[in-house]
Specification:
InterPro entries: Ankyrin_rpt, Ankyrin_rpt-contain_sf. This protein has 582 residues and is mostly helical. Helices cover 50% and strands 0% of the residues.
């Protein structure tokens, strides 16, 4: 240093690679008092700041070099010099817990209330790091226990959030406001609960913290603890007589939160402390329903033992049993029924648990419900029974089970449709076979005379059409207007069904009341496969006109040509030429 000074080196030139730190700053960081003194005697800039704004005093404070800090202060270093983020030397000292340095800085006019990032003071920083002695020191030096940072958090909030029980105790001993509310309405008790710090919770409860104060959303410490699954805090709060039935703004109690998370031990503890088992949310979800929706059997059993109503309903009159059946939770269904849940309870639209299980195809749940005498005949507001729903959704096992328990295959839903209509319309071949085997009527008519064969023909389900025809269903049956299954299959281009119907002697040239044949419909819509099948099955390419019609019907050929169906036109032309050949 002496050589440098003798050579008139620049005292305040930053050292290379040091991010702007001067020799004075580096000497201060290393606690090299003699070097610092020589540099100061040579009038090194005591206020010089590095790229991050840190001065020699910041560095001396950070590393606990009290005598160096004292030398810098005596040389005029400002005790409150501000670095990036608003950090002053006292903030650094507060984190390190050096009480003597803190006193030195305050004696040299450092403000104990100076804010840094997020408006945190030295007291906040000491509280966060658990520096109990420093907290006491700062308070004696004039720091305010209740000064708040961003979010209106005081030092006690900070201590509780980080589980610094010693600091919290010191703050309370020195009269920090325990019920001070930060942003969002949180007290220190809320903060400790949310952060999962049961020792801090216990301390606050011992100091008579208010149990029922509500934060934003109406949360008390207990509902907050239950929401975040803080079982130890829940137990402590209940032991200190927190109200187990207080609800949030949306109607959620601690028991509802425990039911949602599946915490059976917490639910049992709440019930032991007189939590009402059927208190519901604002949209009428009870703890039991919530436990069912989550599949939490152990919670459900605690609730039932605690007196929960197994038949309680929420919006649209759904019960816990409905949810359990819908989601395939057989054990939960069994537990509910063992506690006398109404097996045939209906939703607002008339659905029973059996309907839901049949729709889902859950045979295990169906077994449980049927063992408890669930009604096979119960119909929802659309008139469908469980069998209708099983057939509609191609649930073969469920269909078989329901039929084995004597569900009626000919029960009619809205529009007089049977389960066979539904299976035929959707092409559920194995289900249709089961229904026919159990004496489902193959030619039963729904509204408008619609039969299973009509629906199978329209949908192109040739295998089902064959099954029905083999049960002696007439291929010649007619709807209003004279429509036959063959015409419907042809209209929709279902060539495979056309072949089956013709094989079973469906009349190829039957007319509607307005004179059209199946070939007219296939030609008009350009269904080449259906046209080919009809011609191969004996349909006339030029069917004779129906007598007595007021309006002449165009030929299939003219219809196809008018619509531009060239392949169909060619087929019909060739068929006509062949028919005209001697």
């Amino acid at each position: 240093v002496a050589l440098l000074l003798g050579g008139r080196a620049s005292l305040d030139e930053p050292t290379p690679g040091s991010r702007g730190r001067t020799p004075l700053a580096l000497a201060s960081r290393g606690g090299q008092l003699a070097v610092v003194q020589r540099l100061l005697e040579a009038r090194a800039a005591v206020t010089a700041a590095a790229e991050d704004g840190w001065t020699a005093l910041h560095l001396a404070a950070q590393h606990g070099h009290q005598v160096v800090a004292e030398a810098l202060l005596q040389a005029g270093a400002p005790a409150g010099s501000t670095a990036a983020g608003g950090w002053v030397p006292l903030h650094v000292v507060a984190q390190n817990g050096d009480e003597a340095l803190a006193k030195l800085l305050v004696d040299h006019k450092a403000s104990p209330s100076a804010p840094c990032e997020q408006n945190a003071t030295a007291l906040h920083l000491a509280a966060q790091d658990g520096c109990v002695g420093m907290v006491r020191c700062l308070l004696k030096l004039g720091a305010s226990a209740d000064q708040t940072m961003t979010g209106e958090a005081a030092a006690l909030h900070t201590a509780c959030q980080h589980g610094q029980v010693g600091v919290a105790k010191a703050l309370l001993d020195l009269k920090a406001a325990m019920e001070l509310v930060m942003q969002g309405g949180l007290t220190s008790l809320h903060v400790a609960v949310q952060a999962g710090k049961p020792r801090a919770v216990e301390l606050l409860l011992q100091r008579q913290a208010c149990l029922e104060k509500q934060m934003q959303g109406g949360y008390t410490a207990l509902t907050l603890a239950a929401k975040f699954g803080q079982e130890a805090s829940v137990r402590l709060l209940l032991e200190h007589h927190a109200d187990a039935n207080v609800a949030t703004a949306s109607g959620w109690t601690a028991l509802l939160f425990a039911s949602r998370s599946g915490n059976a031990d917490m639910a049992a503890e709440l019930l032991r402390h007189r939590a009402v088992p059927d208190l519901a949310t604002n949209n009428k979800r009870t703890p039991l329903i919530i436990a069912c929706q989550g599949g939490h059997l152990s919670v459900l059993e605690e609730l039932l033992r605690g007196g929960a109503d197994p038949g309680a309903t929420m919006q649209a009159s759904w019960t816990a049993l409905h949810y359990a059946a819908q989601d395939g939770r057989g054990e939960i269904c069994h537990a509910l029924l063992r506690h006398r849940a109404p097996v045939d309870a209906k939703t607002g639209s008339g659905w029973t648990a059996l309907h839901l299980a049949a729709q889902a195809g859950d045979e295990a749940v169906l077994e449980v419900l049927l063992e408890n005498q669930a009604s096979l005949e119960a119909a929802h507001e659309g008139g469908a029974t469980a069998l209708h729903l099983a057939a509609q959704n191609d649930n073969v096992g469920a269909t078989r089970l329901l039929l084995s328990r004597r569900a009626s295959p000919n029960a009619k839903a809205q529009g007089a449709t049977t389960a066979l209509h539904m299976a035929s319309q959707r092409g559920h071949c194995e289900v249709a076979q089961l229904l026919l085997h159990h004496r489902g009527s193959p030619d039963v008519q729904a509204d408008g005379g619609i039969t299973p064969l009509i629906l199978a023909s329209q949908g192109g389900h040739a295998a089902i059409a064959r099954q029905l025809l083999e049960r002696k269903v007439s291929p010649s049956m007619q709807l209003a207007g004279g429509w036959t299954p063959l015409m419907i299959a042809s209209r929709h281009g279902q060539g495979a069904v056309v072949e089956v119907l013709l094989e079973k002697k469906a009349p190829a040239d039957a007319h509607t009341n307005s004179g059209q044949t199946a070939l007219h419909f296939a030609s008009l819509h350009g269904h080449e496969g259906a046209v080919r099948a009809l011609l191969a099955g004996g349909a006339s390419p030029s069917p004779p006109a129906l007598e007595g019609l007021e309006k002449k019907v165009s030929s299939p050929f003219h219809l196809a040509r008018k619509k531009g169906h060239q392949a169909v036109t060619a087929l019909l032309s060739a068929a006509s030429s062949s028919a005209d050949a001697p």
